[in-house]
Design a protein that fits this description.
The protein is an alpha/beta fold and 393 residues long. The chain folds into 2 domains: 138 residues, Lyase, Ornithine Decarboxylase, Chain A, domain 1 (Beta Barrel); 224 residues, Alpha-Beta Barrel (TIM Barrel), CATH 3.20.20.10. It is 26% helix and 25% strand. The protein has 11 helices and 19 strands. The strands form 3 sheets. Strands 4, 13, 14, 15, 16, 17, 18 and 19 form an 8-stranded mixed β-sheet that branches. Strands 5-6-7-8-9-10-11-12 form an 8-stranded parallel β-barrel, surrounded by 5 helices. Helix 3 packs across helix 4 and helix 5 packs across helix 6. It is elongated and about 70 Å long. The structure holds ligand LLP. Ligand LLP binds next to helix 10.
């Protein structure tokens, strides 16, 4: 269990949050190493390239390197962090709809596993980058199959009209252009379906699209050895169990059965690390107004953008649990009406300035999307493990 109450005090991986709060200013993120390790080990045999956009905290990245994972990067900054953490280039994939020339050149020079091509127009740019560094580039075509998956509209990236990926009618021409360029080598296809998917039915459509494209490309004489299913495996953000990667792998094996062997790759972000993290905030002021009870804390949309951006619902628990409780609206400190972390949160009736609260399931897209709005410092981070000192190892 990542989080649990011991003598009414909330602990992360056995560490009481108040003692962690002595080591960092609030707001700060704390991540449980055992939780990250358990999730890394739950993925089946495949290239599992962690999406650094979900979390780029160097100690957490090093823990994933130690588990044998690869990395999915979308910027020069992420690429350099991945290198510094020790991800072997042959387990790194490069994504993005606007990869810089510098990123392309450094990644090709290092020999990354694949560059996931986002557009026909990217082909000459990759050729130029490969020439500049005197190496060939391994490519996967990121196909946009035009799927309508069930998730927040902001998290749909494989739908018709999306600006990501190569649309179906251009895929064969792109494969031909790759085949004709001596600097390029086609290794497979990439089909990131969108993020925060919970329904097996959505994956059914993705797997069917993969089957269709492997068959069509191979039928046209192009070598497709790998299917990269991107990220997307969601979490429930509640007590309900999360979908499991083994079930997804089984579904994929069923859906691709009969095709000549294919290597599988995944780029999970959220599923690996969201559950491992808590955002610890401190109550600044408690206010009664309009018949409501507003609890203002020191980290809001600057520290955790998800509620403001997607109306995402994260559970908020008191660090010191006590009865009775009453429903509160937990708000951040920024001058924006959307700076509300959560409504109807049951919190101790005697909650007061100085009390700590924990915002749950924030290990993914929490710190990585934090910002300096209202000139607030970025939240600190720490990774905690059982046999480790709680920070900075
Ligand atoms: N691969 C590609 C090409 C992606 O675009 C993404 C996420 C992933 C992998 C990782 O997806 P995941 O396994 O984490 O679902 N900020 C949003 C999520 C945006 C996801 C963008 N792309 C949030 O806070 O929910």
């Amino acid at each position: 269990m990542t989080l649990s109450y011991r003598h009414h005090i909330l602990c992360l991986a056995e560490h009481p949050l108040p003692s962690l709060a002595e080591q960092r200013d609030t707001p700060f993120y704390a991540y449980s190493l055992p939780s990250v390790q358990a999730r890394a080990r739950a993925f089946p045999r495949a290239l599992v390239a962690f999406a650094l956009k979900a979390n780029r905290y160097p100690p957490l990245l090093r823990a994933l390197v130690a588990e044998g994972l690869g990395a999915d990067v979308v910027s020069l900054g992420e690429w350099r962090l991945a290198q510094a953490a020790g991800f072997p280039p042959e387990r790194v994939v490069v994504n993005g709809n606007a990869k810089s020339d510098a990123l392309l050149q450094e990644a090709i020079a290092a020999g990354v596993q694949s560059i996931n091509l986002d557009a026909a127009e990217e082909v000459p740019r990759v050729v130029a980058a490969a020439r500049a560094v005197g190496k060939t580039a391994a490519l996967a075509i990121r196909i946009n199959p035009g799927l309508d998956v069930h998730t927040h509209p902001h998290l749909q990236v494989a739908a018709q009209g999306s600006h990501f990926g190569v649309p179906p009618e251009q895929v064969l021409a792109v494969a031909q252009a790759i085949a004709e360029a001596p600097e390029l080598r086609l290794v497979g296809i990439h089909l990131h379906p969108g993020s925060q998917l919970l329904a097996a039915a959505d994956w059914e459509a993705v797997v069917a699209a993969a089957r269709e494209w492997v068959t069509r490309l191979r039928g046209a004489g192009f070598p497709v050895q790998q299917v990269n299913f991107g990220g997307g495996l969601g979490i429930t953000y509640t007590d309900a169990p999360d979908p499991q990667p083994e079930a997804l792998a089984e579904q994929i094996h069923r859906g691709l059965s009969g095709l000549a062997p294919l290597r599988l790759a995944f780029e999970p972000g959220r599923w690996l690390v969201a559950r491992a993290g808590v955002l610890v905030v401190r109550v600044v002021q408690v206010k009664h107004a309009w018949g409501q009870w507003f609890v203002a804390v020191d980290g809001g949309m600057n520290a955790l953008l998800r509620p403001a951006l997607y109306r995402a619902r994260h559970r908020i628990w008191p660090v010191r649990r006590r009865e009775p409780t009453r429903p509160a609206t937990v708000v951040g400190p920024n001058c924006e009406s959307t700076d509300v972390l959560a409504r109807d949160v049951p919190l101790p009736a005697d909650l007061a300035a100085g009390d700590l609260l924990a915002v749950l399931d924030t290990g993914a897209y929490g710190a990585s999307m934090a910002n300096a709005y209202n000139a607030r410092p970025l939240p600190g981070e720490m990774l905690v493990g059982e046999s480790l000192p709680p920070a900075d190892f």
